[in-house]
Amino acid sequence: MRSTIYNIGYFLKEAKTIFKVDLLSNIFSILSIGLIFFILALVISGWGISNYVIGIIEKEAEINVYFREDMRDPDIIELIKEIESIEGIGKAVFVSQEEAYNRMVEILGSEAAILELFDENPFSPFIEVQIHIEEVDSILEELEKIEEVEHIRDNKRVIDRLQNIVFILKIIGLLAVVAVGISTLVVISHIIRQGIYNNREQINTLELLGAPEFFIGFPFFLEGLFLTIMGGLIASLLLVITIRYGYSQMGIALTFIPLPSKDILTNNMVIFIMASSGVLGAVGSLFGLMSSR
Amino acid sequence: MIEAKGVFLTYGDGTEALKDVNLKIEAGEIVYVTGPSGSGKTSLLKLIMGIEYPTEGYLKVMGQNMVREEASNIRRLRRRMGPVFQEFKLIRGRTALENVVLGMRFLGFPPKMIREEAKTALERVGLGHKAYSLVEKLSWGESQRVAIARAIARKPALILADEPTGNLDLKNALNILEILTSLRDERTSVIITTHATHLIEDVEEGKFVRVDNGIIQVERRGVLAI
Lengths: 293, 226
Ligand SMILES: Nc1ncnc2c1ncn2[C@@H]1O[C@H](COP(=O)(O)OP(=O)(O)O)[C@@H](O)[C@H]1O
Ligand SMILES: [Mg+2]
Hints:
Helix content of chain A: over 70%
Distance between the termini of chain B: 12 Å
Number of helices of chain A: 10
Order of helices and strands of chain B: EEEHEEHEHHHEHEEE
Mean pLDDT of chain B: 89
Number of domains of chain B: 1
Oligomer: heterodimer
Strand content of chain A: 5-15%
Largest sheet of chain A: 4 strands, antiparallel
Structural class of chain B: alpha/beta
Strand order of the largest sheet of chain A: 2-3-1-4
Bound molecules: adenosine-5'-diphosphate, magnesium ion
């Protein structure tokens, strides 16, 4: 242990020497590892963002329940109570014909004049029901059983489609993680092997002097770790720039699309990139060392 | 310290480098291995260091059975040896002192004394003034001394010097032999190979192993030969 601490300076200096001997190819490795991690980070960010957006949409899921026209107010109140008692339903609110009209005016904005073409209010009153999206199927089933319910409008299809997109993104993300993992391992272990080959004379001498494998291999391990962590730093830098640029390009759209906070996204991704580059660097270096014995 | 019984070494290409070697070397002995170039001197040292394994026969070095299966123990065994290679095997791009220090780093010496001991070893071979010179800037004879300093700084139980006087003029060669023989003590054995028999004609003490075409003959002189 004491001699390991004593040798740390030597190990670092060795790693530096190994790095310098093959400077150009090492710099290219850093750049390519950086790019690989950057692409991975992009995919994972996209995945995270869409998950976040869907989470919010899901939380705000609501369906509109239309009822028979001839119902009187007390019956409507009864109906609302009945609906609220269904499992998975949050709140049910009555939306009158006038309110339905006003909402549409708001949505249409300057185009609202078109509504004046109607002699009568063309909208029907309805009940706005907040639901837990996971239970949408059983809720719809229950609602359809109620006699007074005429018609239900839900955004299930929109949510389904979003979930499909998330599923695809998840698969792409997973593939990206695997691809990045493998290519980093290959690049790093190749670099280590190259380093060992370049230093074969010195390694041979150390072996003849009885140096332990750890003593001989550790500088190479450090070099591999250094290369991937540098690559990780480059990827992090690129990602920070990209996220900043991306968010600034969104401009006003940001107020309408519920995106995760820029800082949280950046922090999480940088932590992820650095952690995985550290782990992959260590594993790749070990592979390189073991395969060149 | 070393015990060989009926040892043969045949290289992969069929060269029979050593034939039926029977040899016993005790702790504290000084051994001169002589013989013409190509006779098998280096091969004998390779066997003792575990760089090659006997193709036949039985070889034990400091209690260690020298067989391929024992490779990791043999590597540990090498930490108790101070080899001086025929081609030096110094590490380029480093100073003489760094080379000597490197040979000591993994031997478990107290870190504080490593540099001092390395410097002392360089001074002992008369190279104190070149401690901070890169080894590729040194002359042949100076490189040879760095290699010797690296070996002795390790405080080994066994010094193995392969042609340490090769290419040196008579004065330098005798000086090197003097340094090496002075390392011998009760616990340290020294093995020196040389093809220059005239250098050791006058040596009065030691064990003399003559190698000819892979066959050895042993002769003793003086009290230090057992
Ligand atoms: N690695 C090897 N492979 C095949 N033959 C070798 C090898 N090393 C040495 N030899 C042969 O073994 C014989 C003894 O060599 P060596 O021990 O180096 O002799 P010396 O050191 O006495 O000059 C020579 O014929 C040499 O050519
Ligand atoms: Mg030789």
